[in-house]
Amino acid sequence: MFLPAEFSPIRDRPVADHGGALDRAIARFGGARADWIDLSTGINPWPYPVPEIPADAWTRLPDAAALDGLTLAARAFYNAPGDAAVTVAPGSQALIQMLPRLVPRTQVAVVGPTYAEHARCWALAGHDVQAVEDVDESTAAILVLVNPNNPDGRQWAPARLSALAERQAARGGLLVVDEAFAEVVPPVSLVPQAGMPGLIVLRSFGKFFGLAGLRLGFAFGPAELIGRMTAAFGPWAVSGPALEIGRVALSDRDWVRAMRTRLAAAAPSLDAILAAAGLEPIGGIDLYRLVRIAAAGGLADRLGRHHILVRRFDGQPDRLRFGLPPDEDATVRLRAALMNGDD
Amino acid sequence: MFLPAEFSPIRDRPVADHGGALDRAIARFGGARADWIDLSTGINPWPYPVPEIPADAWTRLPDAAALDGLTLAARAFYNAPGDAAVTVAPGSQALIQMLPRLVPRTQVAVVGPTYAEHARCWALAGHDVQAVEDVDESTAAILVLVNPNNPDGRQWAPARLSALAERQAARGGLLVVDEAFAEVVPPVSLVPQAGMPGLIVLRSFGKFFGLAGLRLGFAFGPAELIGRMTAAFGPWAVSGPALEIGRVALSDRDWVRAMRTRLAAAAPSLDAILAAAGLEPIGGIDLYRLVRIAAAGGLADRLGRHHILVRRFDGQPDRLRFGLPPDEDATVRLRAALMNGDD
Q: How far apart are CA B251 and CA B76, in angstroms?
């Protein structure tokens, strides 16, 4: 049977622990699922209310009208220029998986530490991947960064990134900007420049809109490469309900405005809770905070015993990421678990 | 920018007209969408009733428990043996798109005429694709067939296909069996043999269950190749609602049994309507019938003027495929449109 030499059972397994891994925490610390407060993701805990879904969205193959409706709403919401093409995918993870398969094997630099799936997926497709700390550290043809970065919230100005895209294009390469969390920092977005050669911008629907189960993401960029992505996903890549809900939510400017305000107030409240426990955030955005603490593993375990899940990072044993507590009960429990000392 | 030499704007565009293309018919023949009877697909017109969807399925990243629940239900429903691996994808089209990217470029024979996306997707990934009419016509490493075939309902016995899979494995290749419509012909399924080397079996959830908008499909096969597919799709490939609805529907044996009976009665009723208009089906299954008629285009246009959409085929100008009329009104209108002569 076909088995290319480059196949590796370890590398080809998805990264296990990047949010949503509540199952293992329950297995270790017990409790019913409903008892747990999951602060391990950067997903908005106050989701967009799921609207009425027409029966056709479930029963029919998603048609061109539904796809066009969503695409128009996405172009408007993300401020895509006329010369940028867009492809719609079942989640931004699906885009991160597919893009590396559509360019010839080359050198790829990923600016990090960041979301681990970028490096894994480029390596999985056979590229030569290196981790860099700064955008000027490498001459690789492909440069990948997350803006604002996850988990530390590091940001790059659009003008700086446009220049980088030009540099990468001149190398015959690409700048890939993952804007999975950019809804809470709108000015950083490079989508308005997404028609230029050598630039691909990824957007995630589920995080800011709190509907991560929907699986909906977008890539903006030059027509040829985006056309290849669209062809690779093929027809009906996105579910009918996702097309419908995405179109409605992306068009709801009042909800978006109110949610940005709500998140901008919630993040400082989380800071105060962390500060009261002697934890100073070293970075983050309005959807999460990153803290540095020598005994990060011990603190995560203590929170686990209180059935609160936070995010740890392989290779960064002194970091924890906290998502926003979804309600007053969760806030009280988080404060108590942080303050009580070991139990 | 990266643009491989093999890129072709024509080949890389999805096949436009393979069902669900109601938009163009409306543009040509007018009428509101609700006026149209769409018989152009092989999708069951009596969908599985969408169950209550827990809020978590929308808001959280689909977790291992949800994926495991669906996978177990699928293994039981499709009769997968213990040594077969399974990957879950957002539609069987997504599997058809991805598989060709995971095997080294080689010769591929597609037994047809059949669902056009197979040949397109293997070609898109750079393989050397030929159309064959019979399984013994080619020595290609990869042999692809649809069982039962779409649109003519042609069937291969599992014993014959097991032998073919062994032959393909001995060539260092694969037999790919697309069982998108096998729910109405359960004995043809090769899933019970899916652990053997050189065999990949694809299943589609949306057609028999009438929920094509959900985007859910499965591939069964040997652990290594299926593992590569799973890695290529990555985490959270399928939406939370699809995991939930799929699990419930695939476990509902009473509904499945009753639906098979209903479809088995409906197909002969369609035959009678066609026969009364002088149309003799030359093939099909309980979800659709294929007819041969010299003036197929003229008949399709006449039906279009009655706002009834049937399926035409590029390269087979004397064939039309009819899906099942969904209700009495549709039955009456189809009979009238077929009988009235030109209008």
A: 8
Q: Coil, helix or strand for A23?
A: helix
Average pLDDT of chain B to the nearest whole number: 93
Q: Is the pLDDT of residue B5 over 50?
A: no
B72 touches chain A (CB under 8 A): no
What's the average model confidence in pLDDT over B49-60? Answer: 96
Q: Whole-model pTM?
A: 0.94
Q: What is the pLDDT of residues A224-240, one digit of tens each?
A: 999 999 999 999 999 99
In B, residues 223-252, which contact A (CB 8 Å cutoff)?
Answer: 224-225, 227-228, 230-242
Tell me, yes or no, if A107 comes closer than 8 A to chain B by beta carbon.
no
Q: What's the pLDDT tens digit per position in B93-139?
A: 999 999 999 999 999 999 999 999 999 999 999 999 999 999 999 99
Q: Provide the total of helices (H) and of strands (E) in chain B, helices listed first.
A: 11, 13
The DSSP annotation for B224-281 comes to HHHHHHHHHH-TT-S-HHHHHHHHHHHT-HHHHHHHHHHHHHHHHHHHHHHHHTT--E
Q: Using CB atoms and an 8 Å cut-off, which of residues 275-314 of chain A contact chain B?
A: none
Cα dist. A160→A150, A174, A175, A283, B83 in Å? 19, 15, 12, 21, 53
pLDDT of residue A342: 57
Strands A174-178 and A199-204: parallel
B22, B198, B239 ranked by CB distance to A214: nearest: B239
Residues of B in contact with A227 (CB under 8 A): 9, 12
* DSSP secondary structure letters along B149-203: -TTT-----HHHHHHHHHHHHHTT-EEEEE-TTGGGSGGG--GGGTTSTTEEEEE
**CA–CA dist B19, B207 (Å, integer):** 12
What separation in angstroms does the CA of B213 have from each of A289, B24, B44, B98, B248? 37, 19, 12, 19, 16
Q: Exposed/middle/buried for B19, CB within 10 Å: 0-12, 13-18, 19+?
A: buried
Residue A125 CA, chain-centre distance (Å), reads 20
Residue contact A12–B227, C-beta within 8 A: yes
Using a CB-CB cut-off of 8 Å, the residues of chain A touching B173 are 2
Q: Does B165 touch chain A (CB under 8 A)?
A: no
Residue range A302-330: mean pLDDT, rounded: 95
pLDDT of residue A10: 34
Q: Is B214 on the interface with A (CB under 8 A)?
A: yes
Residue of A nearest to B174 (CA): A1
- Tell whether the model's pLDDT for residue B257 goes beyond 70: yes
Tokens of B23: 């938009």
| Residue B323 · residue B287 · CB < 8 Å | yes
B278 Cβ contact list (under 8 Å, min separation 6): none
* Per-residue tokens: A340: 């009580």
Q: How many whole angstroms separate alpha carbon B163 and alpha carbon B169?
A: 10
Distance separating alpha carbons of residues B105 and B107, to the nearest angstrom = 7
Q: Do B225 and A2 touch (CB under 8 A)?
A: yes
Residue A221 has pLDDT above 90, yes or no: yes
Q: Give the whole-number percent of chain B exceeding pLDDT 90.
A: 88
By three-state DSSP, how is residue A38 classified? strand
N-terminal to C-terminal alpha carbon distance within chain B? 54
pLDDT at residue B230, as a whole number? 96
d(CA A32, CA A25): 11
Residue A76 pLDDT more than 90? yes
Q: Please name the member of B7, B9, B65 whose beta carbon is closest to the beta carbon of A23.
A: B65
- Using a CB-CB cut-off of 8 Å, the residues of chain A touching B213 are 56-62, 239-241
Neighbour-count burial of A116, counting CB atoms closer than 10 A to its CB (0-12 exposed, 13-18 middle, 19+ buried): buried
